[in-house]
Amino acid sequence: MATVVGEVLVAAEVLMKVVEIGQICAAAVKEWQAFSNDAKEIYLKFNHENRKMEALHRVLTDKDKFGLGKPLFELMEPQQQHDVKDILLHLLQLLHCFQTLAHKYNMSGAQAEDSGTKELLESALASQALEDALPDMERRVRWLQTTTGWTKKVRWTAGGKTDAQKLVAGIRDWLVLISEEIDQHFWNLAGLAQNSVGEGTATSPATLDKDLSAGFTRLSLLGDDHDIATLSLNNSMRVRRRVLQLRAERLPTGEAFPSSLLEEASNVQIGPEVQHARFQATVSKDRAISDALVEFRSYQGEAEHVESGMKSLCMMLMEPKHESFRLPCPQGLYHDEAEARYGLLFPLSSLGAKDLNSLWTLEQVISTTERERLPAPLKTPRLEDRFRLALTIATALARFHSVGWYYQGMNSKNICLVENNATVAFDKPFLFGFTKTRSFDEKVSYDDSDLANNVYRHPLRWEPHPRSRHNALYDLYSLGVALLEIGLWRPAAGLLSPTGQADNFDMSAFMTDTYQVQAYLKGWAKKALATNLGSTYQQIVLGLLRAQPESASGGTWQTLPAQKRLMHAIGILQELCESLTLTLDEGISTA
Fold first, then answer.
1. Is residue 324 within 8 Å of 574, Cβ to Cβ?
2. Where is the Prion-inhibition and propagation HeLo domain positioned along the sequence (predicted)?
3. In the chain, domain spans
């Protein structure tokens, strides 16, 4: 208890100091605008971060802000309090450096120049007659005033500008980390952490409804809060609020689903399959015709549970989200009664693709049979491109889990890259493959008839007879397989095929012992991954493929809860990416 109180007091003191120094620096940096346009840009950026620091102080320490009875920081778990405090200390250290820099390049210089003038005057009066001393003194004062400003400008250009830019960037990065901690805590605060409403809990429907209602109320307040918006968390709150609403309503009759989003069958023309389980579609609406991709979820017999699940999924995908989710936005839902299936329609325009030929799945990119058709950037991706791709899809999965949904579609067939003007943004893929996607508390599972996808599934989750309910760790296992493919730049099925070709892979050979595939994949990771992307990347992949159960007694990162385990891996991937993109001139003094 004493430790917790100590953390609270230290954090409060550090926050006060952060705000105090931030205000001092903001006033000093305002004067830098006289240096150059670059200095004005730094002033604007620092002001933006300073507003975040002030908002952070109110969010963490104001006990009346969200009607919680205590400051938000006190409600955090001890480990999270410790992490936030450490981040604040790093932030304070950067602000101290910034304050020193602000004093060094303080443009006013009035006090120093007055002091210099006084010394010149006294010296001149002591050695010369007044009428002879004044002209000489005036010339020396004018020279001093002119050269002081000029000298500072030269020093600013030589080194001060670069130092200021680095410090502002560092301050921004630490503020982003604290915002992410707050974001995760709000999710727990709303009563929606996976552990509290996940599978296997004995929560009664009445208690769950009460918790959902309370959580929705909290997130409603948070989504409209000015300080939450300043910290760029309002969109996250709106997405989660919508998730709560969908859970609370259960969508039994589809009343919460706008009828305008259900496309008429006569307006949709389904074309050929252009990617794995994705079809070309033409949608006619309001006399306009648009091209789209469509993914289906089939049903047998009663369609009520599939309809409800697809409507919830469609609404979740349509909610405004941070771009790091990397999820496509559908324009609506399509019911194909003749084929007994529901389809999500994704306009090509929303993907930034000019046509279907500019969309490539990761499976196509890493397959030797497709190599001749690939555009140049996809044939020979740079090392940093592969690291960015790995980081982006791992982050997207963490985002997916953070709003209470299991993905169940992580494989190279569902990671889509967009080619534009002969370039490909490897850090901006889209995730598709929502055949089995569902929310944490949705009790109905969805079938996947394609047994080849078992390569990406944990041994206990193999179709057609999975032996365990899906949980977040199984999504992490699938991520491990995808990261292995990125590391070796080969399809996982090809690694298991005697010929090395994915097309010749025979899944039936592994159906009697599902753990064989896991063993083979770990073997490939141990044998070849370190040579391609390094031993650190290798350890991340092996940790995900092992899928060890959580351990309350601690241990390694591989036994942490699923989301913490994933966030740890993301942090390491982030460091690997940054180490590959250093500027050669960084750290070289130009003075």
1. no
2. 77-174
3. 2-189, 190-249, 255-351, 354-591
Distances (CA, A) of 368 to 297, 489, 502, 525: 30, 10, 9, 20
Task: Count CB atoms within 10 A of the CB of residue 177.
Answer: 16
Tell which residue, 438, 381, 431, 387, has the closest CA to residue 411: 431
Q: For helices 37-61 and 78-104, give the axis angle rounded to 10 degrees.
A: 150
d(CA 121, CA 144): 13
The first and second tokens of residue 67, run together, are: 């009607």
Domain 354-591 class, CATH top level: mainly alpha
Q: Where are the alpha helices (DSSP H) in 156-303?
A: 161-189, 194-197, 205-223, 226-230, 234-249
Q: Which residue type sits at 59?
A: V
- By C-alpha distance, which of 272, 274, 261, 358 is closest to 314? 261
What top-level class would CATH report for the domain 255-351?
A: alpha beta
Query: In angstroms, rounded to a whole number, what is the distance separating the alpha carbons of residues 523 and 526?
Result: 5
pLDDT digits (tens, 9 = 90+) for 11-53: 888 888 888 888 888 887 777 666 666 777 888 888 889 899 9
- Contact (CB, 8 A) for 491 and 502: yes
**Which of 332, 339, 344, 353 is closest to 409 using CA atoms?**
344
- pTM of the predicted protein model: 0.65
pLDDT tens digits for range 402-453: 888 999 999 999 999 999 877 889 999 999 999 999 988 888 888 887 888 9
What is the rounded (10 degree) CA torsion for 87, 88, 94, 100? -160
pLDDT single digits (tens) 453-463: 999 999 999 99
Residue 405, beta-bridge partner list: 439
Question: Fold match between 255-351 and 354-591?
Answer: no
Residues across the chain: 591
**Residues with Cβ within 8 Å of residue 454, at least 6 apart in sequence:** 462, 463, 507, 510, 514, 517
Cβ-based neighbours of 546, under 8 Å, separated by 6 or more? 522, 558
Q: Can you tell me the distance from the alpha carbon of 479 to that of 457, in angstroms, rounded to the nearest whole number? A: 10
Ramachandran angles phi, psi of 534, nearest 5°: 100, 160
CB 149 within 8 A of CB 112: no
Residue 13's identity, in one-letter code, is E
Cα(197)–Cα(194) distance, rounded to whole angstroms? 6
Do residues 436 and 287 lie in contact, with contact meaning Cβ atoms separated by under 8 Å? no
- d(CA 407, CA 391) in angstroms, rounded, equals 17
Angstrom distances, CA of residue 484 to CA of 178, 449, 522:
31, 24, 9
- How far is Cα 238 from Cα 322, in angstroms, rounded to an integer? 11
